[in-house]
Amino acid sequence: MGAEGLSPRDPSSYSRPEDVVVTNIGINLNVDFNKKILHGHVVLDVKRINKNATELILDAKNLTVSKVIDHYTKKELKYVISDAIEEFGSKMSIELPAQEADNFTLSIYYENNPNASGLQWLTPSQTAGKQHPYLFSQFQAIHARSVIPCQDTPSVKTKYSATITASSELTVLMSAILKSTVTEGNQKQSYFIQDVPVPSYLIAIAVGALESKKIGPRSHVWAEKEIIGACAYEFAETEHQLKTAEEICGPYVWGIYDLLVLPPSFAYGGMENPCLTFVTPTLLAGDRSLANVVAHEIAHSWTGNLITNRNFEHFWLNEGFTVFVERKIKGKLSSPLQQDFDALGRLPELKETVKLLGETNPLTKLVVDLKGVHPDDAFSIVPYEKGQTFLRYLEEVVGGPAQFEPFLRKYFDTFKFKSIDTDDFKSFFENHFSNNSAIQSVDWNVWLYSPGMPPVIPNYNTTLAEKCNKLNKQILDWDEKAACPVESSQVKNLTADEIIYLLQQILDDKPQSVTKLEKLDKVFHFSDVKNSEIKFRWLRIGLKSHWPKSVDPALDWVNEVGRMKFVRPLYRDLYAWEDSRAKAVDNFEKNKQYMMHVVAYTVSKDLHLTS
Ligand SMILES: CC/C=C\C/C=C\C[C@@H](O)/C=C/C=C/C=C\[C@@H](O)CCCC(=O)O
Ligand SMILES: [Zn+2]
């Protein structure tokens, strides 16, 4: 795949904001569920930065543009849309009107493609209520361009407003504040404003038969009515998490913090869309045990949404910081030991990913080179866990939380509303701690630009892990001809986090005998557990151990949920075992039409169907 025309400043975008930059976006779109398209126009306010610039360059992917109008002269402007580079889409060049002034406003009239990679359209039968269709978006990293012609680079942040017209039976939600609705006949117009500048990947929309319940002074949870009660229960701690995040990071600037619980095909645990976090229903464990994902999305209100990576090569600045803050929130709400327990628990997954990608794979660096690489292909747990490990290491180097947390506050305050890169962070850190000689020992080059596992694993406190380590040893040492050495009460008394930790350790060990798995399941009933993180690990242990009883439940589950964190490893495990390989491929071929674009795109690679 060539990278012709893509920007040297952001290898994932054609745009050249250093020449002409979009300063405001006005979205006016109609939702057509029959054609599976959005059609209408966007109004772009534009500022010329480079006096010699004569064109505005946007990203566009499979958009059918009918005209571009200059607001002042009302005349049509010339534009050219280049041939597409596969998943990157096309370069759209618009000739600027000949005028002295550097500010322009133009409207682009267009419609998108029914297969827009940033949208998922669900038929009524694919929803919980079965009566109404459903639409939702996922624009990170570079799918906004499949819905809106825009400068699809996180280096550009704009305010946006939107008028969305849809059937009056449905509710429209966006990553913005709803200002008004007007119903005319069977159509309803919803008007939104996002007054804090955001990058294009944070524009989001959902349309469906949605209801809400208040879960805090600034929060509602939204979902189909069939699950709204369960959602309100699961996320009742949201305000506590928000307040704790504010103690760590500073004031919350986005006004409201709502949650939207999407249908199960949503590809991610959560997406930090401002004012309206999108989450997967796989968080509905029934006991609030997976609400740390909400803490993660709340943390993004600062790390990612206020301070944004300049391009996706610096994605670790978004995600490493967010995991680090998420664990601080959780630690402050439970026990300070929890932060290290969670970090320890995720280390095996980081090791597995580094092994899978290869220890010398450049995509295991903290700062990656995305020239010619689509961000969806670069996505992994590495920026999350290697990133948080680096920050936890730096915290220890400078003397602990008492030194590091005030630095974090200053970092958020200094860079809020900006897009930055790793060098900005490094300089700020070195400047802030210039009197602390311990920072001389930090090998920035190795941490940032060497592939593989982190060069140093911090001295994590292992207190909370000890009980799990003991149980793990008992289970692994057990000769399965004898009775199970662990009583069911010993596991019943564990928290969900502890069971997840324990199962992760068993998964990392050698394959287990089928007899041992049968006996373990009789005592602990892991196969019946609702918690998705437990279910996921138990299914993987079964597949790795070639336990025939895991195959059908794994296939059923990957058909039911789209969360890539679960679906991709399960498909890879099914593929790795010869007995289940053909079934996995056949199952994928039959069901890929129901998957989100990014899920079908990546799983098809995992199953070696595409390269
Ligand atoms: C080094 C990586 C470089 C670029 C990747 C950038 C973006 C990746 C793109 O595919 C979008 C990612 C969206 C992520 C959204 C939410 C995640 O935080 C969820 C994490 C996994 C889960 O819990 O399901
Ligand atoms: Zn995140």
SS class: alpha+beta
* The CATH homologous superfamily of the largest domain: tricorn interacting facor f3 domain
- So what's the overall shape? globular
Strand content: 15-25%
Largest sheet: 7 strands, mixed
Looking across the biggest beta sheet, what order are the strands in?
4-7-2-1-10-13-12
Distance, first to last CA: 11 Å
User: Would you identify the CATH architecture of the largest domain?
Assistant: Sandwich
Which whole number gives the mean pLDDT?
97
Helix percent reads: 25-40%
CATH topology of the largest domain: Immunoglobulin-like
Low-pLDDT ranges? none
Radius of gyration: 25 Å
**Name of the top-level CATH class of the largest domain:** Mainly Beta
| Number of DSSP E strands | 21
Number of helices: 19
Q: What is the total number of structural domains?
A: 3
Ligands bound here?
A: the ligand CC/C=C\C/C=C\C[C@@H](O)/C=C/C=C/C=C\[C@@H](O)CCCC(=O)O, zinc ion
Question: Can you characterise this structure?
Answer:
This is Peptidase M1 leukotriene A4 hydrolase/aminopeptidase C-terminal domain-containing protein. It holds the Pfam family Peptidase_M1. GO terms for molecular function: epoxide hydrolase activity; metalloaminopeptidase activity; zinc ion binding. It comes from Zophobas morio. Its cofactor is Zn(2+). The protein is of the alpha+beta class and 611 residues long. It folds into 3 domains: 1-205, Immunoglobulin-like (Sandwich), CATH 2.60.40.1730; 308-449, Neutral Protease Domain 2 (Neutral Protease, domain 2), CATH 1.10.390; 464-606, Serine Threonine Protein Phosphatase 5, Tetratricopeptide repeat (Alpha Horseshoe), CATH 1.25.40. It contains 19 helices and 21 strands. Strands 4-7-2-1-10-13-12 form a 7-stranded mixed sheet, with no helix packed on it. A 5-stranded mixed sheet has the order 15-16-17-19-18, with helices on one face. Helix 4 (315-333) runs antiparallel to helix 5 (337-357), helix 4 (315-333) crosses helix 7 and helix 7 crosses helix 8. The longest helix has 21 residues, at 337-357. The protein is globular and about 85 Å long. 46% of the residues are buried. The mean pLDDT is 97. Bound molecules: the ligand CC/C=C\C/C=C\C[C@@H](O)/C=C/C=C/C=C\[C@@H](O)CCCC(=O)O and zinc ion (ZN). Residues 140-141, 268-271, 312, 315, 368, 375-376, 378-379, 383, 563, 565 line the site of the ligand CC/C=C\C/C=C\C[C@@H](O)/C=C/C=C/C=C\[C@@H](O)CCCC(=O)O. Zinc ion binds next to helix 4.
